[in-house]
Amino acid sequence: MGLSCGARCAKGFLVTFNLIFWISGCFIFAVGVYLLVDKEKVTVFHLVTEPGLSYALDQYLAWALVGIGGLVFFGGFCGCCGAIRENRALLVTYFIFLFLIMGAELAVGILSVIFQNQTINRLGELSTLLKEEYGINGQTTEAFDFAQTKFNCCGIFGPQDYEGSNWMTQDLGKGDIVAKTCCILSNTDHLDPKPVNSSWCQSDKAAEHIAFRHEEGCLDKLDDFLRNITILLVAIGCGAAALEIFGMIFSICLCKEV
Questions:
Q1: Which of the four pLDDT bands, split at 50, 70 and 90, describes residue 194?
Q2: Where are the transmembrane segments (predicted)?
Q3: 220-254 burial, b if ≥16 CB within 10 A, otherwise e?
Q4: pTM of the predicted model, to two decimals?
Q5: Three-state DSSP class for 213?
Q6: Please, what sign has the CA dihedral across residues 220, 222, 224, 226?
Q7: Are the CB atoms for 195 and 201 separated by under 8 Å?
């Protein structure tokens, strides 16, 4: 028995939807990989990684996006085959995949908001981390240097964070009172910073260093950086989940007529 006009429309819409679905899967997969491999984000994430964890909380969500992107490919295949062959079993499988993917995407969006609060709270502890590990732990030192170079800032609350730090008490800066990346630089390489005027940057006289050293702490700029990532995760999680609802509706309509 032939399909009704409404079912044929649902079939056409379902095939079209799957093309969009696959594209969205590619995008979700790409964003997940980007958050995991982008040097800037990986370096900043190191600063807010909770003790005992291998990754920052947002990086775990990025791994979830990679997994969701992979599920989209398989689910879309079931949807296309089910619609073209008018196979009820494949359409039911497709519906279940859409439901699971929608739940996973909503979870990413919700968890990103929950994790944001934990991550932002972690920022307040970075001043202590700087005092204890800057100049001692290579990865932590690089992360602070990168942040100070990228955001044109110094320390977490300001240059005073270096006072009494292990870096200063152990004279790891060889007489410097702040990291070279706190200075106004003639380049943008945090691994090989070149201050415009190193001696004046390191001066303890405000009249001399004020024009050659960043006085603002990195706290607010790191906060903005991490909040923007949260907005991206929420938009992807909730936006993609809304998209799945249409696919579920089309698959139900077609399944009823098969």
A1: very high
A2: 12-37, 60-84, 91-115, 229-255
A3: ebbeebbeebbeebbebbeebbebbeebbbbbebb
A4: 0.81
A5: strand
A6: negative
A7: yes
